[in-house]
Amino acid sequence: MLKIGDRLPAATLQEFIEVEGEGCSLGPNKFAVDALVAGKKIAIFALPGAFTPTCSAQHVPGYVQQAEALRAAGVDEIWCLSVNDAFVMGAWGREQKTAGKVRMMADGSAEFTRATGLTLDLTAGGLGLRSQRYSMLVVDGVVKTLNIEAPGKFEVSDAATMLAQAQQV
After folding, report:
1. Nearest CA-CA partner of 81 in 135, 151, 145, 150
2. Catalytic annotation present for 80
3. Distance CA 65, CA 59 (A)
4. What is the pLDDT along the chain (169 residues), one digit of tens a residue?
């Protein structure tokens, strides 16, 4: 399992881009994680699924509300990561008004999630393999903080905790 001091695993994530520009075409675009994190301080929070209750009511809105404060603390980008496809993540981002604040990163095949060891098996509930709920602060590809939630909890991966950590790192 991923831990503090580890380098993020090599993987590809997708993001639904609403407007063409900066070398990105409209629609789902693939990005290599190592290229995206190089030289940057990134707050990543992961959750079990798009449009799910806690994720939609608390987790994403908290990061949207704290985006400016996180940037003031030196965070270059904020990523919301989920084992969903890029179309779903794009639609959820529109609903949550994340544009310009939080990048909605799709790990559709759970490639990144499996490589981190932070999987959550929700097959019994009909959701299949998903990501655990967690947050981490990554600097130049290295994990500086890692906040993994206990099953069914939302206590340590919130935006306020990440902001306090970003101000220290």
Report:
1. 135
2. no
3. 10
4. 999 999 999 999 999 987 656 665 667 899 999 999 999 999 999 999 999 999 999 999 999 999 999 999 999 999 999 999 999 999 999 999 999 999 999 999 999 999 999 999 998 888 888 999 999 999 999 999 999 999 889 999 999 999 999 999 9
Domain chopping of the chain, boundaries: 12-166
pTM: 0.94
Element (H, E) at 156: none
Both structure tokens of 77? 């980008």
Which own/partner contact pairs does 18-21 have at CB distance under 8 Å and 24+ positions apart? 18/90, 18/94, 18/99
* 32 neighbors 10 (Cβ within 8 angstroms): yes
Q: Kindly state which CATH superfamily the domain 12-166 is placed in.
A: Glutaredoxin (3.40.30.10)
Give yes or no for a contact between 140 and 40, defined as CB atoms under 8 angstroms apart: yes
Residues 130 and 48: their CA atoms lie apart, in Å, by: 5
CA distance 4 to 146: 6
The answer to whether residues 105 and 13 touch, using CB atoms and an 8 Å cutoff, is yes
Catalytic residue among 42, 55, 86, 104: 55
